[in-house]
Design a protein that fits this description.
The protein is an alpha+beta fold. The protein contains 12 helices and 18 strands. The strands form 4 sheets. The chain has a 5-stranded antiparallel β-sheet with strand order 9-18-17-14-15. The protein has a 5-stranded antiparallel β-sheet with strand order 10-11-12-13-16, covered by helices on one side. It has a 4-stranded antiparallel β-sheet with strand order 2-1-4-3, covered by helices on one side. A hairpin with a 4-residue loop joins strand 1 and strand 2.
Length: about 525
């Protein structure tokens, strides 16, 4: 007794002579089907079996646009082949798979039965194929989600730009089986090169183009975010096949993750640099404040007021007032106001040097202020940074008689506003200090009488512009003093600053501002 159910069915079929020839091919079909792995195999098996049952030498399966299976010559019109041909539909429910076309007498009932049996099998086979593709797609998506997760986590643990790029490059090459990869930054510096042999440290222009072409780096993708570019990644095709559109989308996703981390790293480095810079600026501010006098000397009968407003955290303006000892002629009030070219920390450093020079050279009586300026000029030409120079007004006042000796090295002429309403401008007696080596400076002289006011300022005051672009000018400063003949130095100083701020009309100064007011009381 056969144990195989198909063998038992064959024995039963042979006991029915009328149907044996039809049943046996169906049994062969059913037994063979599970071993056929693809839809093409199933179609081929249906065609062969149908032709065998119908004893047809020509025939095929037509899907409406092409022959899925064909033996012998194809009829010109598959669904209306003409006399001697048989056409049977192959369908399952509402799903139509095509037509079985046979050159034969009307086929036995086993042929429609074969089509009705095989149609759901075909539907199942197609569903299995779709399910298999979906499973593969799902597995790929899960794998790529894991890749994104791992890359995101690992990028967060990396602290340098090169390590970030190296991690990204290794991930790309492993994920897509890319054997050649080049990453350059926005300046052409090579951040990563793999599978390319020896390449220069910097690749720009034609040289970069030549490397990309020679190594067949067919994919060029920017490594950047919405506001900043970190460079480009150039990749070859995978070792097997080509990158699909989905692959390129995922590749860009990984690059975008890296770009975001690079931007975060740069922001973190910039923040640390800013913190270090702020500490340096705090130190510079403290040093600068220590150079400017905390209290101003005021000989009997004199009043002084002064202040400095730096344009940036530190400035390049200098003012200093100090009493210099002169045992034979009496003490003198020494005055210095300077404006270093430029702004910020470099100007502040030069201001520090200038302050030290003046204090060292004018600690006692100065015989000739022009000669002193020549010494300062030589010293600044030896130590100055690039084209940095200064305007300088420096001199000494005799508190007893009001005599003023001074040098003006290219500085804005200070205003000597006399009690009789005359305005005298103390013009330059030489060029800017530190600009030209070997130049000479003359010494200027003036006299400050009771009731007179000396106003010394830098160009940040008089060049202050309003919304219409009009400068304040020194005439407005003189008018402020003339309107207040009995005011002291502090009152005049405050009135001058108020005048400047009102002129700005909610604007701001564009340069360092220094203002010194010296009043000889009546």
């Amino acid at each position: 007794m056969p144990t195989n159910p198909f063998d038992r069915l064959r024995q039963l079929a042979l006991k029915i002579p009328e149907g044996a020839q039809e049943l046996l091919p169906l049994l062969d079909f059913l037994e063979t089907f599970p071993e056929q792995g693809t839809e093409e195999d199933l179609v081929h098996l249906v065609g062969i079996t149908a032709m065998g049952i119908a004893k047809a030498r020509q025939g095929g399966i037509w899907d409406g646009s092409k022959w899925l299976f064909l033996r012998g010559a194809a009829p010109a019109f598959p669904t209306h082949p003409g006399e001697g041909w048989q056409v049977l539909p192959w369908q399952y429910g509402d799903e139509h798979y095509g037509h079985l076309v046979l050159k034969a007498e009307p086929p036995p009932d086993a042929v429609p039965l074969l089509l009705s049996i095989s149609a759901p099998l075909l539907a199942w086979r197609r569903a299995e194929a779709v399910r298999s593709i979906q499973n593969q797609s799902l597995a790929l998506q899960l794998s790529r989600l894991n890749t994104v997760f791992d890359l995101t986590r690992n990028l967060g643990e990396v602290e340098t730009r090169r390590d970030l790029v190296r991690l990204m490059a290794n991930t790309l090459m492993g994920e897509f089986r890319i054997m050649r990869l080049l990453v350059v930054d926005a300046q052409g510096q090579v951040l990563h090169a793999k599978g390319l042999g020896t390449v220069p440290e910097v690749l720009e222009g034609e040289q970069l183009h030549d490397v990309v072409q020679a190594r067949e780096l067919v994919h060029a993708i920017e490594l950047g975010d919405q506001s900043h570019s970190h460079g480009f990644a150039y990749a070859a095709e995978p070792a097997v096949g080509k990158l699909s559109e989905d692959d390129l989308v995922f590749l860009r996703t990984l690059l975008n993750l890296t770009s975001s981390q690079l931007s975060s790293l740069e922001l973190r480095e910039a923040r640390l640099q800013a913190e270090r810079m702020e500490k340096d600026l705090d130190l510079a501010r403290n040093i600068q404040r220590s150079l400017l006098p905390n209290t101003l000397p005021e000989p009997e009968g004199w009043q002084c007021a002064a202040a400095n407003l730096p344009y940036q955290a530190v400035g390049g303006d200098l003012y200093d007032l100090w009493m210099a000892r002169d045992e034979s002629h009496g003490d003198r009030l020494h005055i210095a106001v300077g404006d270093i070219s430029g702004k910020g920390l470099p100007a502040s450093l030069m201001m520090t040097q200038l302050s030290a020079f003046l204090r060292a050279m004018a600690d006692r009586r100065v015989d000739h202020w022009g000669k002193l300026a020549e010494r300062v000029n030589r010293r600044m030409n030896n130590v100055r940074d690039g084209n940095r120079y200064t305007t300088l007004f420096a001199g000494s006042l005799n508190p007893l008689n009001g005599d003023l000796r001074y040098v003006n090295g290219g500085h804005n002429p200070p205003l000597l506003v006399r009690a009789n309403r005359e305005v005298v401008r103390l013009a330059p007696t030489g060029p800017m200090v530190g600009l030209l080596p070997g130049v000479s400076f003359a010494e200027g002289r003036a006299h400050v009488d009771p009731g007179d006011t000396l106003v010394i300022f830098t160009d940040g005051v008089v060049e202050a512009e309003n919304a219409a672009g009009e400068e304040l000018g020194d005439g407005r400063l003189a008018d402020v003093v003339l309107r207040r003949p009995g005011a002291g130095a502090d009152e005049l100083f405050e009135a001058l600053l108020v005048e400047a701020f009102q002129h700005l009309e909610e604007g701001r100064f564009r340069d360092d501002v220094t203002l010194v007011v010296i009043k000889r009381m009546g």
